[in-house]
Write a structure and sequence with these properties.
The structure holds three protein chains of three kinds. In chain A, 80% of the residues lie in helices and 0% in strands. By secondary structure, chain A is mostly helical. In chain A, helix 1 packs antiparallel against helix 2 (28-52) and helix 2 runs antiparallel to helix 3 (63-93). The longest helix of chain A is centred in the last third of the chain and has 31 residues, at 63-93. Chain A starts with a helix and ends with a helix. Chain B is an all-alpha fold. Helix content of chain B is 72%, strand content 3%. Chain B has 21 helices and two strands. A two-stranded antiparallel sheet of chain B has the order 1-2. Chain B is globular and about 70 Å long. The relative contact order of chain B is 0.10. Among the domains of chain C are: 316-590, no CATH class; 653-677. In chain C, 71% of the residues lie in helices and 3% in strands. Chain C has 26 helices and three strands. Chain C has helices spanning 9-27, 34-61, 96-119, 129-149, 153-171, 178-212, 219-235, 241-262, 280-288, 292-301, 303-307, 310-333, 337-357, 361-388, 401-404, 406-420, 426-440, 446-472, 491-516, 518-521, 528-533, 547-570, 580-590, 595-618, 627-645, 652-673, and strands at 2-3, 69-79, 86-94. Chain C has a three-stranded mixed sheet with strand order 1-2-3. In chain C, 52% of the residues are buried. The chains are: A mainly alpha, B mainly alpha, C mainly alpha. At the B-C interface, helix 10, helix 12, helix 14, helix 15 and helix 16 of B face helix 1, strand 2, helix 5, helix 6 and helix 24 of C.
Chain lengths: 103, 554, 677
């Protein structure tokens, strides 16, 4: 079996990578990708927690899985919004550099 | 009409909003079918009909109200968010009965008076007023603290739109300023709620924001914050004196900003400058009462020791408000702002009545809330009529109206007199009771209040002289038309209750009194042991003695 | 005591008609025909008079120590339970004192109404002026009746404030003129000050009564409570009842202030001089029986309060004497006819206060009644005189009217003689009663008060004759070839004057004869008015009268007449004396001791100038935003904005980084605080 701390550790590493990406990337698409990475990291954590601590024998629960579904929906909505922002940014400035956009 | 009868209170509260939503749906339907929307005249009529229906239901409520019972009547309870302790809990007792009646009475009158603006504003205007009415009614009727907060907050929303869209040109700026100051008050109230929640959780392990619990053994706010000296309380009482003081301080600040008492009056004054007549009238007549009502219903019963502690300070604040309101009003040029400030000084007087902790003062406050609502609204409507004609509300622009608009002048004088407590009007009864109550506990405060009222009076006489009489300063004033039939009807409708209350206030007082006495008894019980708990820092005289003399124990 | 449910119509009839007029004016544009308006108003007041007579008749038939006709209508309002319960009723009570006042108000009121109907017909400028005027006049009558008939202090307060409102409305009736508006405001403000004092007095009474264990505001209850306190105080002086003693005294002083404000005693007399800016019938009613008389009534109604406290009685006495002296001295140098009459009225009220304080409420009421008739007559005649002279009010410009309009001269002469106490006219009897009261009283400084009263008598005679000589005799100062003759032939106009003249001459006999000259005309000497009033303070007058007092009073009157005759007829050159001292005194008196200017300086101007700069600098919002507070708030706002602005640096990453740091901090804290780790 996979030990718990592997899963959680992986999730943490992925989350850290995603956050670092948000902080560091200049390209807007890269930014959105990094945010999506953090989403997936948290999804992994949810699934992991649900798998390893599913509740007692008499009453199993699948809360983690349900949460994953919600997060995926939210991520999808966020990506849609991000893309529309991207398009208008591109149209107006002809570039997707966020440092230039914010200057 | 069993269905209506069973849920009378909810019908009263939600009928205006419901009618507004139905109208909007109809409008959308019609426009999607390619037809023009609901004609403008019909919108106003719809608003009028909806609010009048609400008023009729409220009258039925008043008639069916049992004046001898001290419990809440027409109670409705439904679970909303049980884990958070937030429920839909509404009920009526002597204290909010009149406020409900006042609100439902005023809204149709205001709609009728500002009919011309309804013309222009189409459905949005009417819908804003109706939803505002629902929120305020909900605030008055609710018995769950978070529900009260929710309605209180929601009431700002239609107000913001009313002022921003249908108000003066720079209306958004004033609306924003008002929203900021009101927001500060709401923030403080929210902090108080959180504080209360933590206390309750610590004590009982669960949350319930209902004021009283319907089932025996239930947990409610008034059960939670146990009296200081309860020997049977669970463990050590979490609700000691210091906590009560803090809790009350936060509550008091929140409600003082909402009323607003004089140091915090600027937001409201700014709002009144920019608001359309209907909004200004309703704010001054109804919303400001929410603050005083909050004191009576929530702040004082939940933290009575704190209330007693702060009573001297609040009395001083109220006195400052009475005089300060008049002083600030003196230097104004805008008529509506002037009237607002005068109305605020009257509100300070009502606050004074609340903090006398005796039957006369509190009954006087409640009755005065009713009378003051009528007078303030009437005056704002009158000024609105003047503004419609002259397109300016400045005092320096109006003068010598008496020759052209005698009916206007007569009405204006009458309302000013009634607001200042001339006999035969409702103002006299309320003011007399408040002053009597004040005199019983602090004779000096009563004398100061009398002098303050005299000052207000002197100023109002000058105002009348400047605006109504005198030579016709402006040539524009010479061609003004007097009040038309619709406006006269509005004035007539407003005069009748004022005279009626002044001449025969007994039925109302009979309905108010049992709840007031019950309230006094509750406060007295829950603050028992205040002096001991203060670790002998202060003597037992003062407000505590006032409560003892309060006649709260018949 | 007997019930009579029709008692309530005495005040309600005029009030109802006034409300009808008000509603009519407020709703419709045009007013009904003048005749209808006049008939309605006059009819209402006259019906009240008839009802008052009926009630009096009924009262007289009652026996017992405290006869009264009572009408309890309903409970007005009441709150509270237990020892501090409070409730007040709308209830009317006619006892002898109220009966006299009621007859006075309705009687004089009817007369004035009828006269007004006749004389003011052409004076109304705009459409609804007549209806407005009769509405106000009727309201004044109605509220005055409420005051005298109220059984309850709070109900009396309702009427009291109503009288104030009606006075304001009447004085400011000609609203276009600044003078009348200012006068009306002044009157109303001082009246409200008195109302506040009355309210405080009422609260004090409530407190005192609660200490004795009584509640309720009806006068009978108050009287009983006072008796209990007095007995408690005399039983053990200096005990816990001492506290009540102080409260009793303060409440008496509050009541005095209230009565003084309403009856224009010094120093609250300034508003009375402005009353003459209003219509003539209004000032007649106000001066004679409506407003000025209310203060007197309050004192008489609550006389037990003053009887039990000699300090308060002294205060009333000296106040009345001072006012009387001051007012009559203003009258001696007054230049406008109306103003002189106003001052004379005030001095008589001062004497009335003095008589009351001397322990004879009966004397004060009697003097009030006689003065009411003569003053009403004089004011109405003065109004006609002024109209004859086309609105000229200064006596310097008048003269020689007796040749043109002898009827007016006759009326004025009768009124003047009655007021100044010519023998056998009503004023003679009442003045003697007043002097008698002062002489027999137990006030401090009794001799001084008596001397003051004598001087007032002489000065009254002087002023009154001076007016007559100035206005009616002598050479006309102006070319009066084109004066308009009033339509004295019209019945409406002059019949009331006949009635008043008749009353002014004869009313004295009703009371005075049995009192003074019983032994002469073989009627039993009895203090009939006092007996009728059943006043609790027994007046031992029948024994105290000395004939020398009567002669002294008479001689003072003669001195006054003589002085006037000399100065204005025989040796007019004496008036233009070169003595600067006398001239200074005359100037001082002519300007009324500069008291009105003092009020202006101390009261009105600071009111105007204080608020604006102070308030606009400190607190006021918009338009000239209160500089200090506004600056402070702006500084606060900008400061925080500056601080916060720096955090909005722009790049998104910085924000995210801050969020990350915050999250890590929170998580770290949670770990640290959690007991598990």
């Amino acid at each position: 079996m996979i030990p718990e701390h592997h899963v959680i550790g992986l999730s943490a590493i992925l989350f850290a990578i995603g956050v670092l990406g948000v902080l560091v990337r200049r390209n807007f698409i890269g930014l959105v990708l990094s945010i999506a990475l953090t989403f997936n990291a948290s999804n992994l954590a949810f699934v992991g927690f649900n798998r390893f601590w599913p509740g007692d024998e008499a009453k199993l629960h699948w809360d983690g899985q349900v949460f994953v579904a919600v997060v995926i929906a939210v991520a999808a909505a966020q990506v849609v919004m991000g893309l529309s922002v991207l398009f208008s940014m591109f149209r107006n400035r002809n570039g997707v550099d966020i440092d230039e956009a914010g200057a | 009409m069993e269905f209506v009868q069973d849920h009378l209170l909810s019908w009263i509260v939600f009928l205006p909003l419901g009618a507004g939503l139905v109208a909007i749906a109809l409008n959308v339907l019609l426009s999607s079918l390619g037809l023009a929307g609901i004609p403008r005249r019909l919108c106003g009529l719809l608003g009028l009909v909806a609010s009048t229906l609400s008023f009729a239901l409220c009258v039925q409520l008043v008639v069916q109200f049992d004046a001898t019972s001290i419990d809440h009547q027409f109670v409705e309870h439904a679970r909303w968010l049980p884990e958070l302790g937030v429920n839909y809990f509404v009920g009526v007792d002597g204290i909010n009965l009149l406020l409900l009646l006042l609100t439902t009475f005023l809204v149709p009158v205001v709609i009728l008076a500002t009919w011309n603006e309804v013309h222009d504003g189409n459905l949005g205007y009417v819908f804003a007023i109706l939803s505002f009415e629902t929120c305020v009614l909900g605030g008055f009727a609710s018995l769950n603290l978070v529900q009260f907060y929710a309605f209180w907050e929601l009431a700002s929303l239609p107000l913001f739109f009313l002022v921003g869209i249908w108000g003066a040109e720079r209306g958004e700026r004033s609306a924003t300023r008002f929203a900021l100051s009101a927001g500060l008050g709401s923030l403080l109230l929210w902090i108080a709620i959180l504080l209360l929640a933590s206390l309750q959780f610590e004590q009982f392990g669960r949350l319930d924001f209902d004021l009283v619990s319907l089932e025996p053994g239930g947990v409610a706010l008034l059960d939670t914050t146990v009296p200081l000296m309860d020997p049977a309380g669970p463990g050590q009482s979490a609700f000691n004196w210091r906590t009560q003081v803090w809790l009350f301080a936060v509550f008091a600040l929140a409600f003082a900003i909402r009323i607003p008492l004089v140091p915090f009056h600027r937001g409201l004054a700014h709002l009144q400058l920019a608001a359309p007549t209907a909004a200004a009238a309703l704010v001054l007549g109804v919303t400001v009462k929410l603050g005083i009502y909050g004191f009576i219903r929530y702040a004082i019963p939940l933290a009575p020791a704190g209330a007693l502690e702060f009573t001297p300070g609040l009395i001083v604040l109220a006195l400052v408000g009475v005089v300060g309101g008049a002083l600030v009003a003196m230097s104004q040029d805008d008529l509506r702002k002037c009237l607002t400030l005068i109305a605020l000084s009257q509100l300070a007087l009502m606050t004074l009545g609340v903090f006398t902790f005796n039957a006369q003062g509190l009954s006087g406050s409640v009755l005065q809330m009713l009378g003051h609502g009528l007078s303030a609204v009437a005056l704002v409507l009158l000024v609105g009529m003047l503004r419609e004609r002259r397109h300016t509300g400045l005092i320096s622009e109006s003068g010598g109206l008496a020759t052209r608009m005698p009916v206007f002048v007569a009405c204006f004088g009458l309302w000013v007199m009634s607001m200042l407590g001339v006999p035969l009007s409702s103002g006299f009864v309320g003011e007399f009771l408040i002053l009597l109550g004040t005199f019983r506990v602090h004779p000096a405060a009563a004398a100061a209040a009398l002098l303050g009222i005299l000052l207000v009076f002197a100023f109002m006489l000058r105002l009348i002289g400047r605006v109504l009489f005198g030579n016709e300063a402006r040539s524009e004033n010479r061609s003004l038309v007097d009040l038309g039939l619709r406006e006269k009807v509005v004035m007539g409708i407003l005069i009748l209750p004022v005279l009626g209350i002044g001449v025969y206030p007994e039925p109302l007082l009979r309905r108010i009194e049992p709840s007031v006495l019950n309230w006094l008894r509750t406060v007295d019980e829950r603050s028992a042991g205040t002096s001991e708990r203060r670790q002998g820092q202060r003597s037992t005289e003062g407000p505590r003695e006032a409560m003892r003399l309060a006649g709260g124990r018949p | 005591m007997s019930e009579a449910t029709w008692l309530r119509w005495i005040p309600l009839l005029p009030l109802g008609v006034a409300l009808f007029h008000a509603a009519f004016v407020g709703w419709f544009r045009r007013s009904p025909p003048y005749l209808l308006v006049a008939v309605l108003s006059c009819g209402a007041v006259m019906s009240s008079f008839v009802l008052s007579c009926l009630a009096c008749w009924k009262l007289v038939a009652l026996t017992g120590s405290e006869p009264a006709v009572v009408d309890e209508v309903y409970t007005w309002f009441g709150v509270g339970v237990g020892e501090w319960a409070f409730s007040t009723d709308v209830a009317f009570r006619l006892d002898p004192l109220a009966a006299v006042m009621c007859l006075l108000i309705t009687g004089v009121g009817s007369v004035i109404h009828v006269h007004a109907a006749g004389s003011m017909r052409d004076d109304f400028r705009e459409d609804a002026g007549a209806q407005r005027f009769f509405c106000y006049l009727g309201a004044l009558t109605a509220f005055a009746l409420v005051v005298v008939l109220a059984e309850d202090l709070i109900f009396l307060l309702l009427g009291w404030q109503g009288v104030g409102v009606a006075t304001w409305l009447l004085v400011g009736f000609w609203y276009g003129e600044a003078r009348s508006e200012t006068a009306a405001r002044c009157a109303f403000l001082m009246d409200r000050f008195g109302d506040a004092a009355l309210l405080l007095g009422g609260f004090l009474i409530f407190t005192v009564m609660a200490e004795v264990g009584r509640s309720g505001f009806s006068f009978q209850e108050i009287e009983i409570a006072w008796a209990e306190i007095a007995s408690a105080l005399s039983a053990e002086p200096g005990s816990s009842a001492g506290n009540s003693g102080t409260l009793v005294r303060i409440s008496a002083l509050c009541l005095l202030v209230a009565a003084a404000a309403k009856s224009a005693q010094f120093p609250l007399h300034v508003w009375l001089r402005g009353v003459v800016e209003g219509p003539v019938p209004a000032s007649a009613l106000i001066h004679s029986s409506a407003t000025l008389a209310m203060g007197v009534y309050l004192l008489c109604r609550l006389d037990f309060v003053f009887v039990s406290d000699p300090v308060a009685a002294d205060a009333v006495a000296w106040l009345g004497a001072l006012t009387a002296l001051l007012a009559v001295s203003f009258a001696t140098t007054g230049r406008e006819l109306n103003r002189v009459l106003s001052h004379l009225a005030l001095s008589q009220v001062g004497l009335i206060f003095l008589a009351f304080a001397a322990g004879m409420p009966a004397a004060s009421v009697f003097h009030l009644v006689t003065c009411a008739f003569s003053l009403a007559l004089l004011f109405l005649v003065a109004g006609s005189t002024i109209r004859v002279f086309r609105g000229e009010r200064e006596m310097d410009q008048m003269g020689g009217l007796i040749h043109q309009v002898p009827v007016l001269a006759g009326f004025f002469g009768v009124g003047a003689l009655a007021l100044s106490g010519f023998p056998a006219l009503s004023g003679f009897f009442s003045r003697d009663l007043v002097l008698l009261a002062v002489a027999n009283s137990s006030l401090t400084g009794r001799a001084g008060l008596y001397a003051v009263a004598l001087i007032v008598v002489a000065a009254t005679a002087f002023s009154v004759l001076r007016c007559f000589l100035r206005v009616f005799l002598g050479e006309p100062e102006r070319k009066v070839a084109n004066i308009e003759l009033p339509r004295l032939a019209t019945r409406i106009h002059s019949h009331p004057l006949y009635v008043l003249a008749f009353l002014a001459t004869t009313i004295g006999f009703l009371v005075g004869l049995p009192q003074f000259w019983g032994d002469v005309i073989d009627v039993q000497r009895s203090n009939s008015l006092a007996n009728f009033l059943r006043s609790p303070v027994v007046d031992e007058t029948a024994s105290g009268l000395e004939h020398w007092m009567v002669l002294l009073g008479l001689s003072m009157t003669a001195v006054g007449y003589g002085l006037a005759w000399v100065l204005y007829v025989r040796r007019p050159e004496l008036r233009t004396t070169s003595s600067s001292g006398i001239r200074a005194v005359r100037r001082l008196l002519a300007e009324e001791c500069f008291i009105p200017q003092l009020y202006q300086r101390l009261g009105a101007r600071p009111f105007d100038s204080f608020a604006r700069p102070f308030v606009s600098r400190v607190i006021g919002p918009h338009p000239s935003d209160g500089r200090w507070v506004s600056n402070a708030s702006r500084a606060l706002r900008l400061g925080t904005v500056h601080l916060l602005k720096r955090s909005q640096t722009g790049p998104l990453q910085v924000h995210v980084f801050v969020v990350l740091v915050g999250v890590l901090a929170v998580v770290g804290l949670m770990f640290l605080r959690s007991p598990a780790t």
